[in-house]
Amino acid sequence: MATDKHQGIEKSTQHNGCLSNLTMVPWEYKAFVPKDKWVAPAPTITRVIPGHDARLQSTVAFGEQESVPIQIRFSREMDCDSVANSLEIHSTTQDGRVAQLNRSSIICQTTDADPPRYVGEIATAWIFHAQLEGVSNGVHTYTVKNATTEVGELYTNVSQQARLFITGS
User: Fold this and answer.
1) Fewer Cβ atoms within 10 A, N terminus or C terminus of the chain?
2) How many Å apart are CA 147 and CA 154, to the nearest integer?
3) Which domain range does residue 62 map to?
4) CATH number for the domain that contains residue 128
């Protein structure tokens, strides 16, 4: 119900704090923040392919290596070089080899590939595609450490975003 009452929010003398109508879907939420107080959320990883803890059927024999395509999807447009440079790869393999990022395979693109399916789910806005080369049978993790957005004002702000996949027969 609309009112002529002045709430005095942010010391304003204008009408504020009241809406004549607000329609929301079940479990939806909204935050009403003065524009000058808004702080954009940090980017987050929305999805990885292969998925975390994925078991991949190896296409090579013991002692041989293969390529594995990866995708890292983010909630904001990221700086492609920053993501590539922030990627740390660790491998525990039968032959002791560590997978490497093939920098010539990197493709970065804006997208709306993963629209939210649920209230509160974070949408994908940007995808980092690349090939990991020299992948031997074993356990591989990659971690994104403080990658920045396209304009550099925000970053992932975490170092524990390790993603794991396992290759073998």
Assistant:
1) N
2) 9
3) 45-168
4) 2.60.40.1220
In a domain, 3, yes or no: no
Q: Please count the structural domains in the chain.
A: 1
Residue 93 lies in a domain: yes
Query: Does 101 reside within a domain?
Result: yes
**CA dihedral for 108, 64, 99, 46, sign (positive or negative):** positive
Q: How confident is the model at residue 129 (pLDDT cuts 50, 70, 90)?
A: very high
Percentage of the chain modeled with pLDDT above 90: 38
- Residue 118 — very low, low, confident or very high, per pLDDT cuts 50/70/90? confident
pTM of the predicted model as reported, rounded to 2 decimal places: 0.81
Could you give the C-alpha distances from 150 to 78, 79, 104, in angstroms and in order? Answer: 4, 4, 20
**CA end-to-end span of the chain:** 65
Spatial CB neighbours of 153, under 8 Å, sequence gap ≥ 6: none
**Is 156 among the domain residues?**
yes
